[in-house]
Write a structure and sequence with these properties.
Strand order of the largest sheet: 3-2-4-1-15-9-16-19-10-18-17-8-7-6-5
Radius of gyration: 28 Å
Oligomer: single chain
Helix content: 25-40%
Shape: globular
Length: about 725
C-alpha cells in the first residue's frame, strides 16, 4: 500500500538539498507498492519551523513541485529529521490537500505521515471539531496530527510539557485501527516518533563506529509510579487520567526548575542548562542512554537513521535494520534510538534485535529488463533453485526445513491443516492441497483469509494453520493469524520477507528465499511458495515407507525444475506473437484447468486481469458443461491446460467439447505429445509446449506461459506493467 520513508542525521553534516534528495530517492524505492500522491516534510528557514512539499502523481511530479517551491538547498544541518510518504487514496480522492504529510495546524506544529486506516476517525473528527479545530483534508490521518496538538496543548496548559513518546502514548490510547506512522514536531526539534500496529515499519542504522550491542532495549514504564505528577495528565476528552490508570509516567517538565538525574547523579542533559538537580533515581529518565549507541568515551556518536515501511528503500544506505513490533513506540533523539511500550506484558520481549539484511541493491534494480515484472519472470530459474538451496539433498532424497524440523511431530498429529492466504498466495495453497492430502493423509482446507474471518470459522487446538504471504504483512492474513492464535492453534508461516509480521508471529515456518519482488503482480514468489509448500508436504511424509517411491519421484522432479523453467522461457517469442495477433483487442478470456491445473487456471486468469485489464476467468474443466459452455463460440479466446497426468482423458474430453462448438483454444501441452500434434493439424488450435514433470509439479512450468502472456498483453496496450491501476504490492488494510 502506501510507503513511508524518514531520514534523521545526528552530528553528520548534510545540506538541505542532500536531505531532500535522500527522502525523494527513498520514495522512488517504494514506488512499486502503488500510490497516487507524494510528499515530504523538512526543516524550514525559520527556527523550529517545518516546510511541507507535496503533490499528486508520481515521485517525478514531487521533484517538479520541489523545484517550483525552490527551497534553499545549501543550508546545512548537523542534526535534522525529515519524513516522506507515498499515498494510496483511502479517505479522500487524490488531490494536493489530501496528500501526506498531514499537519495539525497552519503553523505545522505536528506533521504526520501514515499508512493504514483509523477506524474511529469520524468520532475523533467530531470531538476535535467541537474543540474548535478546522480540517483541511478528507483524510483520517489529519485527525492524528490534530490529536497530537490537542493533547499537547491541554497538558501544557495544565503544567505538563510531555516528552514526545509520552505524548504519543496518549494519542495511541485514543485511536483505533491499523497504522504505521512517523511524526515530527516543532515542539521537539530534531526528534521523530515511529510507531506501528498492523502496518510494517523498520529502522536502518548507519554509523562509522561499531554499535556496542546488536539490540535495543525496550523501555517499559516504571510500574511503581514514583514519577507520578501532582497534577494528572489530560486525555483527549478533557478528563484527567493518572499514571496508574494506564502505566504512563511523565518524565520531564522542561519549564520546571528541577532537572532529572541519571543513575550516576549526573545531569540528564535537559534542554535548559540552568535547571537545578533533584534526588537521583526519583523519576524515570528521559535521557537514559541506549546501550547500542553507548560510546567508549562517553562522547556523542555521529549516526544516521533511515525509517521505512520496506527494506528496499534502506538497503542502499545500510544493512543494519531493526524491525518494530505492533505497539512499539520508537523515539529518535540526540543520535539514539529508544523503544517504548505503554505497559508491561507477560512474556513480552525485552529487546529488539538489530539485524543484517541479506538483500543486495542489485536485486531491486531492473538491469537489462524493461519492467520489474519481466525481470522477476526471468529470475524464476534462480529463485526456484534458491528456495530449495540447502534444504534438499537430491542424492539421499531428503528434505531439511530448519524452521519446521522441531515442529513436524506435532504437525503430523494434527486433526486437519487449514491453509489461509489471499490472492496469488491462495492459489499456491490450492495448487499444493492435493499433494498435502496424498502424502500426509491429513484433511486440508484452503481458505481465503477475508472469508475465513467473515465466517468466524471454528478453529481448535489440534488444528495446524498455515499462513502464506509474499510480504508477510497482508492485513487479512495477519488478522486471521491473530484469530487462530487466540484459539490455541499451531501456526506456520510461509513468507518471502524476512522480519515481517507473519514471520515473527507464527510458531514456525519457512522463508521462501525468492528475493525481493518489486512488481505488483506476483510471479517468482508464486513459484517459490509452490515449491516451499511441496517441500513442507514432503517433510510431513518422510516417516512413511509407503510413500517412499512417490517422495523420491517428486524430489528428483524438483531437481529439474530450474532448468525446465529456463526452457519454458524460450516460448516468449511465440507468446508475444499470439498476444499481438490472436489475443489482440479481445475483451474476455477463459482458462480451463483440472486437478493440479485448476490453481494454474485461477492464477493465470488473475495475472491477466490485474496486469492487462482484460476480463479473464479460470474455470474448472469438469464444470464446463454446467453453464460455462454457453459462452463458447468461434470468437471467444480460450486457453486450456492439456499436460499429461491421471486426469488427461477428462481434460481432453473437455477441450474436444470446445472445438466441437467452433472454439479455437490455445493448449498448453507437453513437448512432442502426439495427441496434440495431430489435433493441431486437423483442427484450429494452437499449442504451447512445455517440458513434462511429476504431476504435482507441472503447475510450476504451466504458469510461466501465462505470466508471459499477461505481461505482453499489457505491454501491447501501453499499460504500466509494474504499477497496475488501483492495486498495491503489500495490502496492509482490510
Amino acid at each position: 500500500m502506501c510507503g513511508i520513508f524518514g531520514y534523521c542525521n545526528y552530528l553528520v553534516e548534510k545540506s538541505r538539498g542532500e536531505i531532500m534528495d535522500t527522502l525523494v530517492e527513498g520514495l522512488e524505492r517504494l514506488e512499486y507498492r502503488g500510490y497516487d500522491s507524494t510528499g515530504i516534510a523538512i526543516d524550514g528557514d525559520e527556527l523550529d519551523s517545518t516546510l511541507i512539499i507535496k503533490q499528486i502523481g508520481k515521485v517525478s511530479a514531487l521533484k517538479k513541485e520541489i523545484a517550483k517551491v525552490n527551497p534553499n538547498r545549501d543550508v546545512t544541518f548537523v542534526s535534522h529529521c525529515g519524513i516522506a510518504h507515498t499515498r494510496w487514496a483511502t479517505h479522500g480522492e487524490p488531490k494536493q490537500v489530501n496528500c501526506h504529510p498531514q499537519r495539525s495546524d497552519p503553523n505545522n506544529e505536528f506533521v504526520i505521515v501514515h499508512n493504514g486506516i483509523i477506524t474511529n476517525f469520524r468520532e475523533l473528527k467530531t470531538l476535535l471539531l467541537n474543540k474548535g479545530y478546522k480540517f483541511e483534508s478528507e483524510t483520517d490521518t489529519e485527525c492524528i496530527a490534530k490529536l497530537f496538538k490537542h493533547l499537547y496543548d491541554i497538558n501544557y496548559q495544565n503544567g505538563h510539557e510531555l516528552d514526545f513518546h509520552e505524548l504519543t502514548k496518549l494519542v495511541l490510547l485514543e485511536i483505533e485501527g491499523s497504522y504505521g506512522l512517523l511524526c515530527r514536531s516543532s515542539h521537539y526539534p530534531n526528534e521523530v516518533i515511529a510507531t506501528r500496529k498492523g502496518s510494517p515499519l523498520l529502522i536502518g542504522v548507519k554509523s562509522e563506529k561499531k554499535l556496542k550491542v546488536d539490540f535495543v532495549d525496550v523501555e517499559f514504564p516504571d510500574e511503581s509510579n514514583l514519577g507520578r505528577p501532582e497534577t494528572p495528565l489530560i486525555a483527549a476528552n478533557g478528563k484527567a487520567i493518572h499514571s496508574d490508570d494506564n502505566n504512563i509516567t511523565v518524565t520531564t517538565n522542561k519549564k520546571n526548575p528541577d532537572a532529572f538525574l541519571n543513575g550516576n547523579g549526573h545531569s540528564s542533559g535537559s534542554h535548559d542548562d540552568n535547571l537545578l538537580p533533584i534526588a537521583a533515581n526519583e523519576f524515570n529518565l528521559r535521557y537514559s542512554q541506549s546501550r547500542a549507541f553507548l560510546s567508549e568515551d562517553g562522547s556523542p556518536t555521529p549516526v544516521e537513521f533511515f525509517l521505512s515501511s520496506d527494506a528496499s528503500s534502506v538497503i542502499k544506505h545500510t544493512k543494519k535494520v531493526l524491525f518494530l513490533e505492533d505497539d512499539d513506540i520508537a523515539h529518535i533523539y540526540d543520535g539514539e534510538l529508544h523503544i517504548h511500550r505503554s505497559r508491561r506484558e507477560v512474556g513480552a520481549s525485552m529487546t529488539r534485535s538489530i539485524q543484517t539484511l541479506e538483500m543486495e541493491l542489485a536485486q531491486i534494480m531492473k538491469g537489462p529488463y524493461k519492467h520489474f515484472m519481466q525481470k522477476e519472470i526471468y529470475e524464476q530459474p534462480e529463485s526456484t533453485f534458491n528456495t530449495m538451496r540447502g534444504r534438499i539433498d537430491f542424492e539421499n532424497n531428503s528434505i531439511n526445513l530448519g524452521g519446521l524440523k522441531a515442529w513436524l511431530p506435532a504437525i503430523r498429529r494434527a486433526r486437519r491443516i487449514i491453509m489461509i492466504a489471499c490472492g496469488t498466495s491462495y492459489h499456491s495453497c490450492l495448487a499444493t492441497r492435493a499433494i498435502f492430502e496424498e502424502l500426509s493423509e491429513i484433511p486440508v482446507s484452503v481458505e481465503l483469509a477475508s472469508d475465513f474471518l467473515d465466517r468466524k470459522s471454528p478453529v481448535f487446538r489440534d488444528d495446524i494453520c498455515v499462513f502464506v504471504s509474499q510480504s508477510g504483512e497482508t492485513a487479512d492474513t495477519m488478522l486471521a493469524l491473530n484469530y487462530t492464535l487466540e484459539r490455541g492453534a499451531l501456526t506456520v508461516g510461509i513468507v518471502n520477507t524476512v522480519g515481517s509480521s507473519i514471520s515473527r508471529a507464527t510458531h514456525c515456518g519457512v522463508h521462501i528465499n525468492a528475493g525481493p519482488e518489486i512488481g505488483v503482480a506476483s510471479t517468482k514468489a508464486y513459484t517459490s511458495q509452490y515449491i516451499a509448500l511441496v517441500m513442507f508436504a514432503l517433510s510431513l511424509s518422510d516417516d512413511r515407507v509407503s510413500k517412499l517411491e512417490r517422495r523420491e519421484a517428486i524430489i528428483q522432479g524438483l531437481k529439474l525444475i530450474p532448468s525446465q523453467v529456463k526452457q519454458v522461457l524460450k516460448l516468449e517469442p511465440k507468446i508475444k506473437e499470439l498476444c499481438a495477433t490472436k489475443l489482440a483487442d479481445q475483451k474476455s478470456l477463459l482458462i480451463l484447468g483440472r486437478g493440479y491445473q485448476f490453481a494454474s487456471a485461477l492464477e493465470g486468469a488473475l495475472k491477466i486481469k490485474e496486469i492487462s485489464y482484460m476480463h479473464s476467468e479460470g474455470v474448472l474443466a469438469g464444470e464446463l458443461k454446467h453453464g460455462v459452455l454457453a459462452l463458447v463460440d468461434e470468437n471467444l479466446p480460450l486457453i486450456a491446460f492439456g499436460t499429461r497426468d491421471s486426469l488427461f482423458p477428462k481434460v481432453l474430453s473437455s477441450i474436444e467439447q470446445v472445438t466441437a462448438r467452433k472454439g479455437h483454444p490455445i493448449v498448453i501441452c507437453n513437448e512432442n505429445d502426439e495427441v496434440w500434434m495431430e489435433k493441431a493439424v486437423n483442427s484450429n488450435l494452437e499449442t504451447l509446449e512445455v517440458p513434462q514433470t511429476v504431476d504435482c509439479l507441472q503447475g510450476l512450468l504451466n504458469i510461466v506461459p501465462l505470466q508471459l502472456m499477461s505481461y505482453w498483453l499489457a505491454v501491447n496496450k501501453g499499460i504500466d506493467v509494474d504499477f497496475p491501476r488501483n492495486l498495491a504490492k503489500s495490502v496492509t488494510v482490510e
